[in-house]
Amino acid sequence: MHCPVCGEPDSRVIDSRVADGGSGVRRRRECPKCLKRFTTYERLERKPLVIIKKDGRREIFDREKILNGMLKAVEKRPISVEVLESITSLIEKEIRDEGYEEVSSSRVGEKVMEKLKELDQVAYVRFASVYREFRDIDQFMEVLTSLKTGEKH
Fold first, then answer.
1. Are 103 and 95 in contact (CB under 8 A)?
2. What is the pLDDT of residue 81?
3. Residue 136 CB burial class (10 angstroms; 0-12, 13-18, ≥19)
4. Tens digit of pLDDT for each residue in 24-36?
5. I want to staple 42 with a disulfide (CB 3.0 to 4.6 A). Which of 25, 46, 131, 147 is the partner?
6. Given pLDDT bands bounded at 50, 70 and 90, which one contains residue 153?
7. Half-sphere exposure of 33 (CA within 13 A, CB side)
């Protein structure tokens, strides 16, 4: 594995752990040249999952998009990247377990909102406001009211 800092073509594995609920391996590595440490993940290669966008375009599922969206939603919240990685893996697993090779982006977005709602209500509202493209305060209030009363939204 090439070092992402100096480009050294070799690295030493310091620690390996099971990741993604057993379907992957997380490795901590150290570069022998610059001594920087970095993390790599090994995952089972699977048939590509295709996402159908709102405008009908199709693109390959990208777990980094889910992770980045959640990272924005949890900014300045006490939630670790490891927790978000785990949620991302769970969402991907749930989608794949449904057995479809193509899934709508709205289905993915709903799953993200479902997980964020369980994890952190502030992050849920942040994500929902972007995902659902809130246009006014009434839409915010509707979501906040549903959270307060425990309704499913």
1. yes
2. 93
3. exposed
4. 899 999 999 999 9
5. 25
6. low
7. 11
Contact 11, 1 (CB under 8 A): yes
For the chain, the first-to-last Cα distance in angstroms comes to 45
- What's the CA gap between 23 and 63, in Å, rounded? 15
Hey, CA dihedral for 39, 45, 51, 57, is it positive or negative?
Answer: positive
pLDDT band at 95 (very low <50, low <70, confident <90, very high): very high
**Strands of 102-104's sheet, edge to edge?**
58-60, 50-52, 102-104
List helix spans (H) across the chain.
63-73, 81-97, 105-119, 121-131, 137-149
Structure tokens belonging to residue 47: 């048939």
